[in-house]
Amino acid sequence: MGLYLPILYGSVRSQRRSIHVARFALERLQRRPGVETRLFDPAELPFGNLIHRSWEWMDAPVEVAQFEAEMVRADGFLVVTPEYNHGYPGTLKNLLDHLFEPWGRKPFAFVGAGGPYGGARAIDGLRLVIPGLKAISIPTMIGVSQVDKSFGPDGPLTDREGWERRFDVLFAELEWYALALQRARQEPAVDSAPTGR
Ligand SMILES: Cc1cc2nc3c(=O)[nH]c(=O)nc-3n(C[C@H](O)[C@H](O)[C@H](O)COP(=O)(O)O)c2cc1C
User: Between the chain's N and C termini, which has fewer beta carbons within 10 Å?
Assistant: First the structure.
């Protein structure tokens, strides 16, 4: 199959709990046949607030070019995000805003982590952003409720099998869209669509 599906993670908070969900997703996605993945953690990237978009950033750190090259190569994305005040973190939006072309005509899947609603409102907000990137969001999502009680450094604290099953369903759907769009990007784009490159 040959799909590259990087994970974009949304928080740089020092006490962040959703990182446990992102690492569990990484470990699970790495097991999928034909899938290559990697976790991109904004705490390890020199983006910060948006000052330059990548193509305007003349003296950009090498990490910026590397990140862009990886996103160009990607066939789709898994976003793992906490919910902050009924929205997604600015850190995640900054990461997305630095690039444009590499997102185009590729699928995004979402995993939220939060309080009672499992980050659902952060995901709903992101679903409004994705068309601005000329990308698409897939229907299925995962919400991890009360992440401080449900996930730890070794992953789910209860019902590990159930979480594995839910993540596998999400990944299967992301792979389906990623493969379909990988093929479709071989065709000429309509005028308004970026190439994904
Ligand atoms: C600034 C801030 C605002 C938050 N607002 C919400 C919220 O609106 N809804 C919610 O479910 N959880 C909210 N939370 C709780 C986070 O979802 C919770 O901290 C969770 O652990 C995931 O975020 P983390 O990875 O930063 O820990 C908020 C947390 C912070 C730090």
Answer: C
Phi, psi of 182 (to 5 degrees): -60, -45
- What structural domains and CATH numbers belong to the chain? 3-184 (3.40.50.360)
How many Å lie between the centroid of ligand 1 and the Cα of residue 125?
A: 15
> Which tens digits make up the pLDDT trace of 127-172?
999 999 999 999 999 999 999 999 999 999 999 999 999 999 999 9
Q: Which of these, 47, 156, 24, 147, lies nearest to 95 by C-alpha position?
A: 47
- Ligand 1 pocket, 84 CB below 6 A? yes
Give the nearest ligand 1 atom to 83 CA: 17
Q: Are 173 and 32 in contact (CB under 8 A)?
A: no
CB-ligand 1 contact for 11 (6 Å cutoff): yes
Residue 125 in tokens: 């907000």
The pTM (predicted TM-score) of the whole model is: 0.96
The minimum-distance atom of ligand 1 relative to the CA of 10 is 25
Instruction: Using the mean position of ligand 1's atoms as its centre, give its distance from the Cα of residue 28 in Å.
Output: 24
Q: Is 127 within 8 Å of 119 (Cβ atoms)?
A: no
